[in-house]
Task: structure prediction
Amino acid sequence: MIKITKVAAICNLGNNLDEIFHNILSAKLTEFKISSPLPQINDEKFNLRCNQLLLHCINQIKPDINNFIKRYTPKKIATVIATTNTGIDKFEETGNKEFLKMSNPAEFVRNYLGLDGAAYGISTACSSGIKAFSTAKRLIESGICDAAIVGGTDELSRFPLAGFKSLEVLSEKRSNPFSKNRCGMNISESAAIFLVEKEGDGINILGIGETSDAYHSATPNPEGTQAVRAITLALSEANLAPDDIDYINLHGTGTITNDLMEGNAISKVFGNKTPVSSTKPLTGHCLGAAASIEVAICYTLLTNNQNILPPHIYDGEYDTAIPKINLVLPNIKVEEIKYVMCNAFGFGGTNAVMVMGK
Result:
């Protein structure tokens, strides 16, 4: 069984997972840019904000990473990092295209930690974070590596902000997913690092489903047909039924196209029973790192034993054009959380779903 044995993260809600999860449960509202000072990197090629975010995470669990490397050796550890905006801020500043390589964060982590294994940069829009786990899982199961350092990182920059604004999906107000008063999404930044292996104590990666809509260059299929298929593939690989899932972290961007598609998909598989929420009104949409920070949240949910579900923050005026789903109210506690699902539905119809369990 492939499992996550250690996690570190940073986002607008905090410098580590404990802070982030505490502020999610307390529904703390903040700005979407990370205000904490970040470590600098000596090599200019790698001294990008996305890598500084990763280095912050690495430093949190450096002793665990050192032991991880000793246990598996540098040649048998793969590096798989999700991103979409690598170096865009530096390119905007300098005009140097060398900063735009999507492999840069993976190369940085491998270089910084002295690893010799395969390194992959995953850039499939907002599904990147879960597809990074899928890639690492296949590498381990095929014997190409024995373990992997998986991560995701994205930074704020003008270019993607302008792009989403031109599509008229960017909101100047806080996102309001599944409300009839929704006004679009908020872009944010974050990073997370995960140690992934077959051994040790951790949270099991039970199933991953990946599909593509092949519907439209920017808009998901409103019926959620391939999103449903991704969900059922993940459940099938996990050997679980829909009723077994205790909580779903929605993609939940707060755009009409995502809300309609995801609402349809969840309703078709789970009805109105399974508790669901989007954490993006609190963390913002971290693009290539969105699923990474959300998997980190799900990991904490499975390990902290509080059994309090992340609340769905919105104005309470549900869009009746969308099938009703069970949005989590604040301070909802359940008897047990054993299996959770994390959804990532990306720009252009790329779908990835991961089921995790104790």
Notes: The longest strand covers residues 203-212.
